[in-house]
Amino acid sequence: MKPACIDAVIEAVGRPMSDAELKGIEDRIGRELRRLGNGPDGLRLTGEQRFFEAARRARESFLGEQELKARRDALAVLKHAQVEQALAGFPGDKIAGLRRLLAFHGDAKGSTLSVESKAEAIEADAFRQMLGTLEATNPKFFGLFESPEGVRALVREMFGEDSGVREAKEGAAEFKKVADELLGRFNDAGGKIRPREDWGLPHHHSQNKIAAAGEAVWVEKTFPLLNRDRYRNEDGSRMNDSQVLAFLRESYQTLATGGVNTLEPGAGGGETMRANLHAAAREIHYRSADDYLAYQKDFGERGLYDVLTGHVRGLADSIAMVETFGPNPDHAFKYFRDLAQREMTVADPTKHGKIAKQLVGLDNLYNYVSGKTLPVASEWLAQGFDSLRKWLVASRLGSAFISSLPDEATMQLTARVNNIDGMQVFRNELAALNPANQMEKRMAQRAGLALQTMIGSLNRFGDENMRNTLATKMATFTMRASGLNAITEARRRAFGVTMMSSLGHLTRDAEAPSKLDPMDHRILLSKGITDADWQVWKRAELEDWGGGNGTMLTPEAIYRIPDEALVGIGNLDANPQQLRRDAATRLLGVVLEEQNMAVVEPGSRERAALYSNLQRGTWKGELTRSVFLFKTMPIAMLMRHWERGMSGPDARSKAGYIGALMVSTTVMGMLALQIDELLKGRDPVNMNPFEGKAGARNWVRAFLKGGSLGIYGDFLFSEQNQHGGGPIASALGPVVGAVEEAFGLTQGNLVQLGQGKDTHAGAELLKFAKGMTPGANLWYLKAATNHLIFNQLQEMVSPGYLARVKSRAQREFGTTEWWDSRQAVPDRAPNLATAVGR
């Protein structure tokens, strides 16, 4: 800055300024000059006019930042008070209060919506408004293939190009609207992301692919794809080749290192690194949609569908954090964490060790909820285990549809404690299962209730990490082809629809949440519903969906409330749009929390307990994740429902809930067990517990199957499960089990051969191949494929093998076959009398 300019700035400010302040002003004007150069306004101005316009914008930017700082300070004070109020309900144990602020707990303690639940609600509210966007690229044919035509058309529309496809044009407009609203909501809560008028879609850069390519290759391939009009000097002139290449080389360092190149040793800087990484990604401007797609092919590892949903999910998580803890969540959390440690330790110093242990768990939960995960240590190791786990999902869960029958029990139990009509839940489930009733599905999607299958989650029985790989596609195929996704979605829709109708009815009966019966509505009152939320709900015009759902309170009904109807609700300066938005978020948060209790979905709390501090790409981290494959759902069920049962107000209610849970899930487990036996070609197992050992053993198996732990029932009475795996290997998860089987095929058979024993290598190899073939054990096909193909082949390569398997099953579990495993067709119908010991 020239001396005359410095004097002018000091005179305008009215005080002496440091060199750092003057440099900051100079940099601010420089940024505005470059932004002017990138837009049409700047190109029409002379050099002097451009400088004065940049100075004016810099002044407005500076004043805006000062205003933002003041507003963020005020928001921090407000959120501080709200967190204090939430923790006041946990005298003597603020750690428990903080845990419930972060993640959902089923015990109905406290009176707030967790960060986890709020993020899920914001995400669902966003996705329901962009169905057109999702459908334009939604993977087709059981999730195997993303529509390339839909992707190209949607990207073109997002770049402002005419695709000629109406659905793509509408989908692009929906996404832009939703993304802008989410960005505005984040900034309203104290966030600081500068909106860009030319922004069309989020960019995705694979750090691994960029780093593997190297600087020279990445720069060479990226350079011709750039929109050169977006790269300007401060005087408005276009950057020359050498300048753009220098910019790309600097960007490469940031993208290839994940922002670590900006790290200042000793200064922390985690958030700064993340900000620099995002800034670098936002400054890669492509000439056209085709150039963007070309870049993604070389340096992306996620499909457009995953990029768009990931962008929404990331914003939803950030919004939930700042709306709960304020503009600086890390600082606020640390303050309340340290406060809890001090108060609890001072109150009882003898428990300092226990408190320290609780704080470790609390920190792990915060890191998980806030997305602070460790970087991948070894990409090849992480990808290898990811693929193996997904492949096991594809090859081992073809009968998970049958194993999910205990969901019916948890649905009815959750309905009962929420005072929801259980029969209406069942009627709505039947309606949701009707393939001809697409209107019901569409209305539920518009209400934010039926989006999990569309988004493509494998969280229930699979792994939470999603990659665009063949193994992921095959796992998705199995989940959809087996009907598991369909039945799970139908149950979730049914419960959500019934609860929304029940809430709509309640808002017409009660004037405020305080008027609700504290015993009958204990669960609902723990969700932090404010008087303002309730008054907004009361003013919504309820929807009639028919079939007993005539009082539907939906997000769309809330957003249709006119501004004048909201006058007098909340604070004097309450914004009508904010009132509607908060009420819709609360509604979805309330419904989705209970929906995840009814049809259990592992959440942040369960995953943090299992995976915290486990770095992906390390042997420890990958083996531990593999051990818990297929176990997160049963662990979540036990954690959530046991916790809810033990939180009852008296011993009678505790015993009633736990007893109902155990009996109902065991009965449904027995039903699942019997169906599974019939599908295997076996007669029903003996259910008479007083007739021999088999009857009692089968009820134990049913009890474990009701908790989705059916495989472990075998080990109470046998050294092997019915698939031939040992108890230790199966207890350590299907990955270790598969390794054990592979080991047995090689060294195990060599040992047997050396001892002169029959190896049955052919039968074991065939069984292993079948167990690793995606879709081979689909529940509605496995009886036919087993008897017509696999059993015949096994008998050919190892005569007598099937007879030994049959003998063991009869000896250990009392099972008999209605379809002989050695025959291609059955010679009799199932003997249902064996179910009662005959």
Keywords:
single chain; mainly alpha; 39 helices; globular
Could you walk me through the main structural features you see in this protein, from its secondary elements to its overall organization?
The chain is mostly helical and 838 residues long. Among the domains are: 1-88, no CATH class; 379-629, no CATH class; 650-723 and 763-836, no CATH class. Helices cover 64% and strands 0% of the residues. The chain has 39 helices and no strands. It has helices spanning 3-13, 19-37, 40-43, 47-87, 94-102, 115-128, 131-137, 148-158, 166-188, 207-213, 215-222, 241-257, 270-282, 289-299, 304-325, 329-347, 352-369, 379-396, 400-403, 407-417, 422-433, 438-446, 452-455, 470-481, 484-509, 522-525, 531-539, 555-559, 576-598, 604-611, 619-627, 632-646, 651-679, 692-706, 727-731, 734-754, 761-771, 782-797, 801-813. The protein is globular.
Q: What are the low-pLDDT stretches, counting only 5+ consecutive residues below 50?
A: 272-277, 710-723
Helix/strand-derived category reads: mainly alpha
| Beta strand count | 0
Task: Classify the helix fraction into a percent range.
Answer: 55-70%
Main beta sheet strand tally, sense and closure: none
Percentage of residues in DSSP E strands: under 5%
Distance between the termini: 98 Å
Query: What is the general shape?
Result: globular
Helix count equals: 39
Mean pLDDT: 84
Radius of gyration from CA coordinates = 30 Å
